Amino acid sequence: MTTVKELSDRLDALEADHGEALDTIWMLLAGLLVFFMHAGFSLLEAGSVRFKNTQNILSKNLLVVTLGFLCWYAVGWAVAYGVTDGDPNKFTGFTEFFAARFWDDKTKFRNWFFQGAFCATGCTIVSGAMAERTQLKGFAIYSILMTSWIYPVVAYWGWSGSGLLSYKDDNGKGVSAFGPPYMDFAGSGIVHLVGGIGALLGSICVGARKDRWNAAKQDEFAAHSIPFCVLGTFCLWFGWFGFNPGSTLSMKTKGDAATAGLVAMNTTLAPCIAGLVVFALRAVLPPRFLDVGGFCNGILAGLVAITAGCAFIKPWEAIIIGFIGGIVYQAASMLLKLVKVDDVVDAFPVHGACGIWGVLALGLFGNDDEGIGGNGLFYGGDQLRVQVMAVVVIVAWTGIQSAFVFLPLRLLRCLRLSDDYQDTGADAMKHSPYSPKQAVAEEKTPYIEPMPEVVEVAKPEVATSEI
C-alpha cells in the first residue's frame, strides 16, 4: 500500500521535473531569439557597407558564429563557467573543457547554448566596426581569441558566481572585490562593452578605409542599403527579447514571470525614446537631415543602455536611461568622426559608450525598497562604486588583450587589406560566385557600379521648424 510519504515524494519529483521542463523550454526559446540576432547583425552590417564588400562582411558574420561556438565548446565555457571545486580562484574557470562533466548535470546543456549565443554576439560587434578593410584570416584569429579567452574571462568575473566582480564571502553574502556584487542583468558591460572596446581597438589598429577622410569622397562611403539596416535593426530588437527577458534563466515561478514581464517592458521603452532622441538630434545638428540610419543606431543604443538594469528599475527610469543613452550615442559618434576613427557601423558609440552608460546607470537608479534588487545612489544605495570599477577593469582587460592580438597581426601584415582590394572590393577580388566584376578585378582596376542617368535637383533649404 502506498504511504503518504511515498505520494509526497512522487509529487515532489513530478514538480521538479515539470519545473526543469519549463526552464529548459524558456531558455531554449530565449537562446533561439539571441541566435536570431545574428541575422539582424548580418542585415545591418551588409546594408552599412558598400555593395562591393557585401559578401566579405557576411563571411565574417558566418565565421563568428561557426568558429565562436566551436571555441565556446572547447575552451570558452570552461573559462567562463568552469568553476573549480573547493576554493575557486577569482580570475578564471578551469574545468569542463569540451563539455566534460555535462552528463553529471544535464542542465548545463541548455546553459551552454544560451550563454554561447551571448559569446558569439559580443564578437560579432567587432566585425562591423572593421568592415571593408580587414583581412579574413586576421579577423578569424581575433574571433578565436575573443570567444575562447577575452569574453569568457569577463563572463567569469561577473556571472559565474565565483569571479572578482561577484562571489560569496565566508558568510555566504554576495560581494565583489570592490564592495557589493557587480550588477549587470543581461550584459551591458559583460557583453556589449567587451564587444565595443574590441571594436574600438580593431578600428584604430586596422586604420581607416582608403580615402575615408577625403572630404571630396565622403559620399562614396554611404550605406548601400538603408532597408537592410532597418530590417536588421528590427531583427536585433526582436532578438533582444530573448537576450534580456531570457536572462532570468528560469520560468517556473510567479516571480520569474513577473521579472520577465518587467524586463520586456523596459526593453521596449528605452529604445523607443533613444531612437527618437537621435532622430531629432540629427535633424537639428549639421547637416540637418532626417537620418534613418541614425534612427536605427539610436534604437540599438537604447537597447544596450537598458540591458544591465532592465530587471532592477521601474519603466519610467528605463525611459530616462534610454533618453540619456541616445545623447551618449550621438556624442560618441561625433567624437569618433572628430578624431578620425573609422567605425563603419558605429559599433563603439552603440555598444561601448552606451554599454558604459548602462553599467553606470544601474549604480544610480533602482530602489532597493521596491524589492526587485535595486541599489542605486539616488535611493541611498552604494552600488555606483562597484559599477565604476567594473567599467575600469572590463575596459582595461578587453583593451589590453585586443591590442595584444591586433598589433602583432598588423605587424605581420595579416590585418589590413591592400589599397587594390579596397578600391576594387573584396567581393570581386576574393569571393565566389564568379561575376563580371571579378574579371575587372583580375586586371587590378577598380570596378565602378553603373548608375542610371538622373537629373540632379537642388535640395531646397528647409528651416528646422519645418522638419
Could you provide a short overview of the structure?
This protein has 467 residues and is mainly alpha-helical. The chain has helices spanning 4-48, 54-81, 107-129, 136-159, 188-206, 226-243, 254-284, 292-307, 315-338, 347-364, 384-411, 419-424, 426-430, 436-442; strands at residues 162-163, 166-168, 174-175.
Keywords for this structure?
single chain, 467 residues, mainly alpha, Ammonium transporter fold, three-stranded antiparallel beta sheet, 14 helices, 3 strands, globular, disordered C terminus
Supply the CATH architecture.
Orthogonal Bundle
Number of strands: 3
Q: Write down the CATH topology.
A: Ammonium transporter fold
Low-pLDDT residue intervals, each spanning 5 or more residues? 441-445, 462-467
Give the ordered list of helices and strands: HHHHEEEHHHHHHHHHH
**CATH secondary-structure class:** Mainly Alpha
Helical residues, percent: 55-70%
| Principal-axis shape | globular
Query: Superfamily at the CATH H level?
Result: Ammonium transporter AmtB like domains
Tally of structural domains: 1
SS class: mainly alpha
The radius of gyration over CA amounts to 23 Å
Q: Enumerate how many helices there are, as a single number.
A: 14
Give the neighbour order of strands across the main sheet. 1-2-3
How far the N terminus sits from the C terminus, by CA atoms, comes to: 81 Å
